[in-house]
Amino acid sequence: MQNAPLQHLAFFDETSSSQRFVAALLEKADIHINGDRPWDLQLNAHGVIEDALARGNLGLGERYMNGDWEAEQLDTFFYKLMRARLPDQVNHSKLLFHHLKTRLINLQTAKRAFQVGEAHYDLGNEFYAAMLDKRMTYTCGYWKDAKTLDEAQEAKLDLICRKLELKPGMRVLDIGCGWGSFMAYAAEHYGVECVGLTISKEQTEYGKQLMQSGLPVEFRLKDYRDETEQFDRIVSVGMFEHVGRKNYREYMKVANRCLKDDGLFLLHTIGKNVRNTSPDPWIDKYIFPNGELPALSHVTNAAESLFVVEDVHNFGADYDRTLMAWHKNFEDSWPQFKDQFSERFYRMWRYYLLSCAGAFRARDIQLWQFVLSKKGVVGGHDRVS
After folding, report:
1. Does residue 177 have an active-site annotation?
2. How confident is the model over 222-262, as pLDDT tens digits?
3. pTM (2 decimals)?
4. Is residue 71 located within the same domain as residue 139?
């Protein structure tokens, strides 16, 4: 990589106290301002550093969307930033309202439940088909023995089926079923019948194709709180992140109500390392409205007296590789969508995929699979990996 263009240097004032403070912080993460390495921060406009100090990732992300700064390897930039725990060393002065709002207000009520579907999942089935694997699985792949994204996603789906000990004829509830990748796979390979709940109209329309193909799957455009039917097994993959701390207990009560006494429940969720933190303000505004990552204790506290935790499996490092595969597909397919979406959307989506990849690589966030039973499996549940 050649040295940064000279015009970038005008946007970095070495005499500014805030910029000296940030430069010293970034040095701890081996990141230079206007440096010559692919993960270094290149400034294209005034005020980027001050905005990041005041508004954290919201300021940094919006400035990136505007083209005010760049990093050739954005994933590596965030990996180094998160691995050095630099965000923990800054008090973002303008985020107090965001912090209080997430603490005091239930942002994931039934009335709000469909907002994330409209804002994120309803971008269009063609867009996600181009980015994801052939089954359109929008959750972490399992890369233990996989070489491609398709292989990693099928391995994940099969892992879930084996953990649930699926048998032909069982009825399975999929809470947050996405485009039905799990339901189709489980129906094809394990002979089960599936009912999926989604809050996305686009996913429901896509699901009609699966139902017309003859597979025993059913899509219901429905909030999870409204489900009352009982099932042999329950699976929930990548949905708990939208539940919110004020609803964790209710979510577990719904799962308990809908699971037969001898059934198993597999919960697959992204999680955070520290309990008393607020949702990322940029992700909340632009990617997943009203979302919130649980800490490990959130899950276990919500499950207390309702479920026995039979197994916990963390393969969060695999999300880094999954996100990088999605990013490659996104970049490769962008020419067919650039007339539909703006350049600002392109930079937003790139920032989303690569910043998350860096965070998982740094082990700042995790991916957990829980196997839960209502009364405990007599003799124990055989661990699958």
Report:
1. no
2. 999 999 999 999 999 999 999 999 999 999 999 999 999 99
3. 0.89
4. no
